[in-house]
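User: Could you check the structure of this?
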Amino acid sequence: MLPKSLDSLDDCQTKEDAKSFFRNFRNTDRVSPDAEPITPKSDARLAIRKLRPSNHFIQASLCLSQDQIRALYRIDESHGNNWDAYCDALSLEQIKCVGW
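Assistant: Sure, the predicted structure tokens are below.
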């Protein structure tokens, strides 16, 4: 069986797919508008800001639990560069909502 093509997060069907996607594309020139390289640490911060109950533009089911918030802060505090830890902290739907 040939490996499936994971050209975008939309192609990911499982969290393992998302981990593979991030591992394969982590070295691309993905830079935020303020020119800070995008890392698991920066995406963890974005997830905390974006997936909050006061964000009326997302479904309530996508809001972070307290355990998820703690896991994302641990990535931030440890100067994390670990996409697996980022993916483990979120559901696949949350990963897709935060985006690439």
